[in-house]
Amino acid sequence: MTEFKVAKREEDRVSVLELKGYLDAHTAPKLEEALQQLLNTQRYDIVVNCRDLSYISSAGLGVFMAFIEDVRKHEGDIKLTNMSSKVYNVFDLLGFPLLYEIFKDEQEAVGRFCDKGKKPAPPTL
């Protein structure tokens, strides 16, 4: 059986999920459960750190697609970070960079959420 873990932590008002191992049809329910828990507690600003994700199948990608509409309906988003080139290529092949913001660094993704609530500075004369 393939090994897969999801660790959850909070960064400011952003929930970070750290994925580790193989995300496939057998392990996808663990990610579904973690995302559902976030929605149940009204946590809609989500960063998924893929630093230790070594493999993702179409079933794993399907989990992201299953949740993105509900997350965005509540003015949140799912941002992806720290992908290996192998994992990124799977996301890229299926057009995910058009649907999701993908960052090299987790802090950059968290920062993007933190900037969301700020109003732009008024223009200076």
User: How many helical elements?
Assistant: 5
Q: What structural class should be given to the helix and strand makeup?
A: alpha/beta
How is the main sheet built?
5 strands, mixed
The residue-averaged pLDDT reads: 91
Percent range for helical residues?
40-55%
Distance from first to last alpha carbon: 64 Å
Structural Rg: 15 Å
Q: How big a fraction of the residues is strand?
A: 25-35%
CATH class: Alpha Beta
Strand order of the largest sheet: 1-2-3-4-5
Q: What is the number of beta strands?
A: 5
If you had to describe this structure to a student in words, what would you say it looks like?
With 125 residues, the protein is an alpha/beta fold. The protein has one domain (4-109): Transcription Regulator spoIIAA. It contains 5 helices and 5 strands; from the N terminus they run E-E-H-E-H-E-H-H-E-H. A 5-stranded mixed beta sheet has the order 1-2-3-4-5, with helices on both faces. Strand 1 and strand 2 form a beta hairpin. Helix 1 (28-40) runs parallel beside helix 2 (58-73). The longest helix is centred in the middle third of the chain and has 16 residues, at 58-73. The radius of gyration is 15 Å and the shape is globular. The termini are far apart. The relative contact order is 0.17. Residues 119-124 have low confidence and may be disordered.
Task: Compile the SSE list and pairings.
Layout (H helix, E strand, L loop, with lengths): L3 E8 L2 E10 L4 H13 L4 E12 L1 H16 L3 E5 L3 H9 L2 H4 L2 E2 L2 H11 L9
Helix pairs in contact: 1-2
